[in-house]
Design a protein that fits this description.
This protein is an alpha+beta fold. Helices cover 57% and strands 13% of the residues. It is built from six helices and five strands. The strands form two sheets. Strands 3-5-4 form a three-stranded antiparallel β-sheet. Strands 1-2 form a two-stranded antiparallel sheet. Helix 1 crosses helix 5 and helix 2 packs across helix 5. The protein starts with a strand and ends with a helix.
Length: 173
Amino acid sequence: MQLHLCRLASPVNLDVNASMSDCPTPSSAAPSPSSVNAWVRLMRAQRILLAAIEQDLKAAGLPPLGWYDVLLELARAADGRLRPYEIEDRILLEQHNLSRLLDRMEKAGLVRREVFSEDGRGRWAVITEDGRAMQKGIWAVYGQAIRTHVGEKLSDAEAVQLSDLLARLSTKV
């Protein structure tokens, strides 16, 4: 795996296991090889696991994982409704993607939009009974996929350790 680590007139590409001493920047500015390796493996694992879970959902005839995330947050919300920006804050989708996703979910009867009474331009996204049923149906497959793709590869102690490590990476700077 080649990574571009330095900004020079002619870029230097280093192997993940290569020494960082080839980079003319101060050593404190460059990540350690073990940090780079952790980053690469984290990104690879994320891509592989998401693809596997998406494939499991597709094979079961269910919508993509993003739908589950929206339905779960709406199901957890008071009165089963949130403003789109509140959903966006909770699920990491960009607003333009969320708007299109809500359009598709509304067309499928899983959510409905209601006018926000304090601002006629604003809308609530509200989960429907069909949406609640879909969220539970997706979870049946999603939960099994997590068990298969994560739980069968890690002991409970390893899963706790990994969760703790990822929590440290998840704190905002």
